[in-house]
Amino acid sequence: MKKSVEYDCKCVERILRYIRQLKEAQEHFEVNNSDDLVQNDLCLLATAQIFTNIYETKKNMQESTLDKMPELGKVNLRIARNIASHDYESLDLKVVYNQVIRLLNIKLSNELEAFINANRPTD
């Protein structure tokens, strides 16, 4: 598949949807800190899946697009692999929760929305 700005816009829209889902999961399970995340396996699994979805979506985007999104670059999405492999004992959930906070950061959402608005095809 040939990558394009239009394709990247669709990817960014998907990432924004995943971020909204992450926020809903955090609110539904009343996760306000890493200790809450430790206590809720379902939320941890939902978080892992959302991180994986974002990671896979991001992998398909052009580097030139990702270069315009420094906030997205700050999020360590690879930690989902550790969660998904159920290696809970060696996983520092404070690190996971810090990445959740980064994904829910309004600066990231604004950055993603700005990219879509600047590159949305006109009809």
Low-confidence stretches: none
Assembly state here? single chain
Average residue-wise pLDDT: 86
SSE order, one letter for each helix or strand: HHHHHHHH
Please tell me how large the radius of gyration is.
15 Å
Structural class: mainly alpha
Strand percentage, roughly? under 5%
Helix content percent band: over 70%
Q: Give the end-to-end Cα distance, rounded to a whole number of Å.
A: 23 Å
**Total number of helices:** 8
Main β-sheet, in a few words? none
Overall strand count: 0
Query: What is the domain tally?
Result: 1
Shape: elongated
Describe the structure.
This protein is mainly α. It has one domain. It has helices spanning 5-28, 34-38, 41-59, 63-66, 70-73, 79-84, 93-104, 106-119. Helix 1 (5-28) runs antiparallel to helix 3 and helix 1 runs antiparallel to helix 8. The two termini are 23 Å apart.
